[in-house]
Design goal:
alpha+beta; globular; 6 helices; 192 residues; five-stranded antiparallel β-sheet
Length: 192
Amino acid sequence: MPKKTVEAILASDNHLLVQLKGNQPTLQAHARQLALQPPVRTESSHDIGRRNRIERRTVKVWPLPAEFGSEPWHRRFRTLVHVERQVERFETKSAQWRPSHESALYLSNLPHDRVEWGDIIRRHWHIENRLHWVRDETMGEDSSRIRRNPGIFALLRSFALNILRFNAENNISQAIYRNTLDFDRVLAYRGI
């Protein structure tokens, strides 16, 4: 997330949860150093049997010190969250379980002791998977070569996605394919 966006959100007294990635190496180094300390809170959860997978999640939480980070805007964050996911996926072709391990750091301006961090992060990824991934992959937003007024086409993609969701289309890729084969389906949608 761009620094200006973070500053605007924090200045408006809204809550913020951002994943800390490699594009902020200094901030990430400070967070990793803090994560070596014992956490003040740990949550564990697991899902069994969803989409041929077993997922175990461990969430660790630390309050951030007042002098956290190297820039003034870093000090606006109050909580560091570390999520580890161990996933085993059953591959039907090979009839074997394939393990994988993922780890992510998050920063938030919420106090560390107020909320269930695992649920908040899962809701964040639910939005990412239902909206951003669909726009990027299914609707081709990332591969778009439009350079003049790309925001107009982003609005059109959002408009189309909203109409599909309003008409209870769960699989957007299949809905787009069916609509290309039969234009009458598109005209029959409610909300057009």
